[in-house]
Amino acid sequence: MALSELPPPIDDTGDAGAEPPLVRVPPPGSMSKAWLARLQGVDAPWTAARRERRAAISGLDESPIVLVSAKGSNIADLDGNRYVDFVAAFGAALLGHGATRVARTLEMQSERLVFGLGDVYPSDSKIALTERLARLFPEAGARVMLGLSGSDAMDAAMKTSLLATGRPGIVAFEGGYHGLATGPLAMNGLRAEYRAPFAPHLSPHVRFAPFARRESELDAALSAVDALAKSGEIGAIVVEPILGRGGVHIPPAGFLGGLREIATRTGALLVADEIWTGLGRSGAILRSVEDGVIPDLVCLGKGLGGGMPISACVGKGEVMEAWRNPKGVSPELAEAGLHGEAIHTATHFGNPLACACAIAVLDSIFGQKLHVRAKDEGEVFLGMLREACGPETKVREIRGKGLMLGIEVEGGPARGLGLVRDLMMTGWLVLTGGAGDVITLTPPLNMPRKLMEAFTERFAQLAAMRAL
Ligand SMILES: Cc1ncc(COP(=O)(O)O)c(C=O)c1O
């Protein structure tokens, strides 16, 4: 398609990207509908099938709006409607949309060097970024493996744990989500339907344990992990420090520490999937470390590249050493496979544009202390929501850490999806998590408080109306 065919961006997002919603035509408007019809003619049909299924659950038209421009906390659709974004690219737009520092970096780096040469000839931006990422790890000597997506980072963690322990077994958690590429899909505990169609391709060595969502579940969850790990076949315990897509569940104190203890005692690695929680989202650069636990491997992704696809698996030096001296691999294979060939690479791993942007993102987060702001503003937001949502709103629980919040509503997925639609129609973008009954909120870490206040008021109104 010729670029000239694209409509010009709607300059309606306000200078600061801190404007309230402005709904000019009921979404989706005619432009969005027309472009959606084009998409439906060419897109793999799973997206339409998903919409139809959601419509069957909610009883509503689930047609999407088509996005065209964004700035800060605002997004505009093709019909000139302005929204406030509480999704922020599935939590990835940590700095908001169109962050100037990232845009300038992209421009500068695209004039310097666009393509890298992976493991053969590294670029200066890749070297500078890997140094920065290694320093995020709480112990000296950490090593880094870059990827393009969260799934890639999880793949790297799975491979590393196999090389480091010689054991294929993995303990993952019910409700967990680690990406949908074939490797991490095997660890998807969110819903069996993600795994089922692809079961023949998935690792048969993954076992699931309950994720402790509250104090009363702690002992049973840890005992289940312990029983699995004691078999001696488990090479990795893979956990989200806060269950994200599973519905924003914060484990009780002692859960992560308990997993650390089991992993150490049984010779397994503890892998913290911080793809959602990390880099400030949950009010800390690394949630696991903030909670007093040092994992063997930490996976980062989502917001790392400021919109450029990049992820990282960062690990203890002695664990990563397995890429030189793997366990459980015959010396001949190790020599032929590990030393002779690049057995873990991809054309765009370490892409200079993405690496340069990731450095800009880290500079912005640390420079503006966005992780600290997320912690403080998250507490305020949580307090506001709890106060505003009385019994008339039929809200079951509101929880969160930093700017990663979940509002669990009564009425199951039908009501959850209904609220998402009500909010969208009035200019507020949110998603559901868990079983579809949790409204998840992951705004930019710099979203102005006034937008969170306005959202709180609107949400409480809409939730009360939908409760009638
Ligand atoms: C905790 C967690 N891990 C991994 C992933 C997968 O990341 P990606 O979609 O970039 O592959 C996600 C995505 O939502 C996630 O939330």
Structure report:
The protein is α/β, with parallel strands linked by helices and 468 residues long. The protein has helices at 30-42, 46-58, 88-91, 100-112, 124-136, 150-165, 182-185, 192-195, 218-229, 255-266, 287-290, 317-320, 331-339, 352-367, 370-388, 412-425, 449-466; strands at 67-71, 74-77, 82-85, 143-147, 169-173, 206-209, 234-239, 269-273, 297-300, 311-315, 395-401, 404-409, 428-429, 431-433, 438-441. A 7-stranded mixed β-sheet has the order 4-10-9-8-7-5-6, sandwiched between helices. A 4-stranded mixed β-sheet has the order 1-2-3-13. A 4-stranded antiparallel β-sheet has the order 11-12-15-14, with helices on one face. Helix 5 packs across helix 14 (352-367) and helix 15 packs parallel to helix 17. The N and C termini lie far apart (47 Å). Pyridoxal-5'-phosphate binds next to helix 6.
